[in-house]
Amino acid sequence: MATQTIREKQSVHHHQVNRLAQLKAVPKEMAMETEGLHVYYGDKEAIKNISLSFPKNAVTALIGPSGCGKSTYLRSLNRMNDEVENCRIEGSILYKGVDINSPMANVFEVRKQIGMVFQRPNPFAKSIYQNVAYGPTHHGLKNKKRIDEIVEDSLRKAALWDEVKDKLHRSALALSGGQQQRLCIARALAMNPEVLLLDEPASALDPVSTGKIEELIGELKKDYTIIIVTHNMQQAARISDYTAFFYMGKVVEYGETSQIFTNPQNEQTENYISGNFG
Ligand SMILES: Nc1ncnc2c1ncn2[C@@H]1O[C@H](COP(=O)(O)OP(=O)(O)OP(=O)(O)O)[C@@H](O)[C@H]1O
After folding, report:
1. How many Å lie between the centroid of ligand 1 and the Cα of residue 71?
2. Continuous segment of H or E residues that includes residue 244
3. Residue whose CA is closest, atom 8 of ligand 1?
4. How much is the pLDDT for 158?
5. ipTM (interface pTM)
């Protein structure tokens, strides 16, 4: 067999490097984005002109000091702020090319496709099974076999099935906090969403349960786009692909998580991630 000359090897290497560069240059598909978003509570402007895009099948972390607007921004992404009196939105939030606040968008459909899990686990005072079956049955699904399948599938995806499969008809409130939070994730997954919004989903949990949620997020991004608010810098560094640093209602820095944590361009970001304020 002919051996490769150095020149040939260099050429192959050159070709691979070029290919890698091309691959990296391919624009990522976005699951949703905001353009020039402003959110007001009465006269107070809590979100000031934020334009951000969320790549599909990736985890984007929203970080920043308390009160900088992370939750307000996250809640606006599936119209949770509709429920807040005197909350007003300007700018656009695009999902599948449609502004979710336009008259063409249906709020129930928006919340079905853009699911949300909150800081404190909030299962219904019903059985484990009923918690997961609630959404699909509420939307009109009657086929018992299909509902059973959705319940099992959602609990498996939320890494809870093995722990609860023998007690599906017991109260969800008897589960541990960490299990309840995974149940809330299963409840969101049962609606077959594309995007999952997580508002500090592990902040009320012990380290072992937190580890399970982080591991789960790593699995879920294969099928979903995840946007997570977290106070925990190590957590953001561990689990996210992209990070947006919020400060006083604005995004002052956005980039790949590895870059933001190793080489922040903005002084406020650097101070925050090194623990100097916030
Ligand atoms: N319902 C509301 N009515 C009026 N002001 C509000 C309301 N909710 C939030 N705010 C204000 O909007 C700003 C942003 O709050 P938000 O909760 O979004 O920040 P955050 O970054 O998520 O904070 P934290 O990390 O403490 O949860 C704060 O000044 C807050 O006081």
Report:
1. 7
2. strand 242-247
3. 72
4. 94
5. 0.97
Q: Is domain 56-78+107-241+256-273 annotated with CATH 3.30.1300.10?
A: no
Ligand 1 centroid – CA 181 distance (Å): 23
**Which residue lies with its CA nearest to atom 2 of ligand 1?**
41
Q: What is the residue extent of each domain of the chain?
A: 56-78+107-241+256-273
**Which two three-digit tokens encode residue 184?**
């809330």
Q: Whose CA is nearest to atom 3 of ligand 1?
A: 41
**CB-based contact 60:229 (threshold 8 Å):** no
Residue 88 near residue 119, CB atoms below 8 Å: no
Strands 114-117 and 30-41, bridge-based pairing = unpaired
Residues of the chain with pLDDT under 70: 1-27, 277-278
Residue 265: CB atoms within 10 A of its CB come to 11
Residue ranges around ligand 1 (CB below 6 Å): 41, 44, 46, 64, 66-72, 84
